């Protein structure tokens, strides 16, 4: 996961570490020169004690990095982040915060300066994420049935993600039904049926060509009548550029009044995923994001940029093709994955 990005961040960290050590040695040389001049003026018998003082200085040496020291590395880092599909605005924010965390700070070079840079980096990354959203607290507190609508483009893992969430809900003691709002393709009906069979969940569906809003509406009514906690509404994958389909999703929202609208995209789509998130958010005011396929993502850009760009939290990440392969998103965990 995020292998390319990790490599680039490691390069930055080593360069700043080298710079810190280089500065420490330069300061040591300067100090030693001053000591030598002093020595010339002093008595022969004081030489030994001066040697002692210099030694003390070396062990306690502190380094201050200034803008010129880190500027070239920060520029390189910004480019690396952009190449890893981190959005421009987000890359700039990370680099600015990193600069303010590093410049003028006292770094004790004998302590692990790499650890120091990592800490500065960690803070800069955490800063780009909006506050977290606890999905299961939301489920616990909200009146039932809770209607959750999943939107996104084709093939990103939306349907699989719905099945994963249904299983995760079951593990926490909540019941759910799957509603097939993708009435365009007969294949989509079969696909959701198959997931329903695999995880032993009821699927509410209409014939191909039916009204997706009506299917989800029926699923809510069914859940009210049968004390089901959560309706998980699938929708047809659609390109954000398809005006008719985007109008249809607005209609589904209007008619079924979802309690939560979740935008699903694949982390591997990088900056495309960020662009699509913006479009879907504009169309239906997304509440939260799920990023699938982070197990296959080497760049990490979408995961870093998406929630900052639309100011909505990531709630889960997909980590594989199995039903258990889903993880609640947590900023500390995520940043740890990148900086480990
Ligand atoms: N590696 C990996 N694969 C995933 C993950 N989530 C889903 N997939 C795979 O992605 C492929 C597409 O998943 P679907 O659930 O069919 O995607 P969809 O968005 O519902 O597709 P449409 O119904 O065509 O819009 C399947 O092969 C899934 O197994 C994940 O987190 N990691």
TrEMBL record:
Binding of GTP, residues: 152-159, 234-238, 292-295
Entry EC no(s): 3.6.5.4
GO cellular component annotations of the record: cytoplasm; plasma membrane
Primary subcellular site in the record, as a coarse category: membrane
InterPro entries with a match to the protein in the record: AAA+_ATPase, P-loop_NTPase, Signal_recog_particl_SRP54_hlx, SR_rcpt_FtsY, SRP/SRP_N, SRP54_GTPase_dom, SRP54_N_sf
Sorted UniProt keywords: Cell membrane, Cytoplasm, GTP-binding, Hydrolase, Membrane, Nucleotide-binding, Receptor
Span list, region Disordered: 17-51
Pfam families recorded: SRP54, SRP54_N
Gene Ontology biological process terms from the UniProt entry: SRP-dependent cotranslational protein targeting to membrane
Transferase recorded as keyword: no
Record's subcellular location: Cell membrane; Cytoplasm
One Gene Ontology MF term: GTP binding
SMART domains reported in the protein's UniProt record: AAA, SRP54, SRP54_N
Residues annotated as domain SRP54-type proteins GTP-binding: 313-326
Keyword GTP-binding: yes
Catalysed reactions, as listed in the record: GTP + H2O = GDP + phosphate + H(+)
Bias (Basic and acidic residues): 17-47
Job of this protein: Involved in targeting and insertion of nascent membrane proteins into the cytoplasmic membrane. Acts as a receptor for the complex formed by the signal recognition particle (SRP) and the ribosome-nascent chain (RNC).
Family of this protein: Belongs to the GTP-binding SRP family. FtsY subfamily.
Assembly and oligomerization: Part of the signal recognition particle protein translocation system, which is composed of SRP and FtsY.
Protein's name according to its UniProt entry: Signal recognition particle receptor FtsY
Organism of origin: Methanohalarchaeum thermophilum
Gene giving rise to this polypeptide: ftsY
């Amino acid at each position: 996961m995020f292998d390319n990005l990790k490599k680039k961040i490691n390069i930055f960290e080593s360069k700043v570490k080298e710079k810190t050590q280089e500065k420490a040695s330069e300061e040591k040389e300067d100090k030693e020169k001053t000591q030598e001049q002093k020595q010339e003026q002093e008595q022969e018998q004081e030489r030994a004690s001066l040697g002692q003082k210099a030694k003390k200085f070396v062990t306690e040496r502190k380094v201050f990095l200034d803008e010129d020291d880190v500027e070239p590395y920060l520029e390189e880092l910004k480019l690396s982040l952009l190449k890893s599909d981190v959005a421009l605005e987000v890359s700039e924010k990370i680099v600015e915060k990193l600069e303010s965390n590093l410049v003028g700070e006292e770094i004790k070079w004998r302590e692990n300066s790499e650890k120091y840079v990592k800490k500065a980096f960690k803070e800069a990354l955490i800063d780009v994420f909006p506050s977290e959203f606890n999905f299961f607290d939301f489920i616990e507190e909200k009146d039932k049935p809770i209607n959750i609508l999943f939107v996104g483009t084709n093939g990103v893992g939306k349907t699989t993600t719905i099945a994963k969430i249904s299983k995760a809900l079951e593990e926490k003691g909540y019941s759910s039904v799957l509603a097939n709002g993708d009435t365009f393709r007969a294949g989509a009906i079969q696909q959701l049926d198959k997931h329903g069979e695999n995880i032993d969940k009821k699927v509410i569906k209409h014939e191909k060509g039916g009204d997706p809003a009506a299917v989800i509406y029926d699923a809510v009514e069914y859940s009210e009548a049968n004390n089901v906690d959560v309706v998980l509404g699938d929708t047809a994958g659609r390109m954000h550029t398809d005006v008719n389909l985007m109008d249809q999703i607005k209609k589904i929202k209007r008619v079924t009044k979802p309690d939560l609208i979740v935008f699903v995209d694949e982390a591997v789509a990088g900056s495309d995923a960020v662009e699509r998130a913006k479009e879907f958010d504009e169309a239906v005011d997304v509440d939260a994001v799920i990023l699938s396929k982070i197990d296959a993502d080497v760049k990490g850009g979408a995961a870093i940029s998406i929630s900052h760009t639309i100011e909505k939290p990531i709630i889960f990440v997909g980590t594989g093709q199995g039903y258990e392969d889903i993880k609640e998103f947590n900023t500390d965990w995520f940043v740890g994955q990148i900086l480990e």
